[in-house]
Specification:
Oligomer: single chain
Helix content: under 10%
Mean pLDDT: 96
Number of strands: 25
């Protein structure tokens, strides 16, 4: 697989770098918008949370489905699977992960951060992720193909670069949420329901609007002053009981479509 793919807009002013399916850079008019791997804070730039969102240890890492009891670690196990490139061009790249039901997957968090050496899911699925850049924005498209009735949660988890001076804030339904407000959550995410758009407002440089389709909810997370995660999610998990079942997961109709658009503006 080609590890690094670089996409460019037709005006050559937007450059996107993707590493093994992970968005690691979005430069707009020479300004980097994304949190950089290796910088203080989170070790990634983006990831997907699937087929569940949230922690699992309080429920012994179990998820109950009609196809049996599954073992999942925090935020699911999609991150443990490897993307392969289906297609790429000057401005678009398409990736795919494929999973066969009940296949045990090595958990990279074991043993330091998890007691589960292997995780698995009781359904087949195909997970597609595509990137498309134009002169104004970056569109990230998700497609989940599975058997009818598969329960799931999906969250997209991109991290955006901040100055480190706590001068930025997020605009949510015309309400200002400061970076300090999010840090004060103490590691827990800041959820917003029935919401599909959040803007990151900066003192200097380009602001960023994140608009989602299909998710229905969003949340903010950071524990650091140099980055903020603005995350479209289908569900906000029950952090106390950490109970996952058909009652609190979305039910697949065989093909599910989700879109996130990242738009810089001044």
């Amino acid at each position: 697989m080609k590890d690094i793919i670089i996409l460019k807009s037709t005006d050559q002013k937007s450059i996107v770098t993707i590493e093994k399916g992970e968005l690691i850079s979005y430069q707009f008019n020479m300004e980097e918008l994304m949190h950089q791997k290796g910088s203080p804070g989170w070790e990634n730039t983006d990831t997907e949370m699937f087929p569940i969102i949230g922690p699992t240890f309080a429920n012994h890492n179990k998820v109950y489905t009609e196809n049996g009891v599954c073992i999942q670690d925090q935020h699911g196990f999609l991150r443990e699977l490897v993307y392969r490139v289906l297609d790429s061009s000057e401005n678009k790249a398409i990736y795919q992960k494929t999973y066969k039901a009940n296949t045990k997957i090595k958990n990279n968090h074991f043993p330091e951060r998890s007691e589960e050496e292997f995780v698995f899911w009781s359904y087949d699925f195909i997970f597609k992720k595509s990137f498309e850049i134009n002169n104004k924005s970056l569109k990230i498209h998700f497609e989940i193909l599975s058997e009818n009735g598969m329960p799931f949660m999906l969250g997209y988890h991109p991290a955006f670069k901040l100055s480190g001076n706590l001068t930025e804030y997020c605009l949510v339904n015309n309400k200002k949420i400061t970076i300090q407000n999010v840090i004060d959550k103490g590691g827990a995410s800041f959820p917003f329901y029935d919401l599909d758009e959040i803007s990151l407002i900066k003192e200097h440089g380009y602001n960023v609007k994140i608009k989602a389709q299909g998710f229905e909810n969003m949340m903010l997370w950071t524990e650091f002053n140099n980055m903020i995660c603005i995350e479209p999610i289908t569900h906000y998990p029950d952090l106390e009981k950490q109970s996952y079942s058909k009652k609190n997961l979305r039910i697949s109709n065989e093909k599910e479509i989700f879109t996130v658009e990242i738009t810089p503006f001044q």
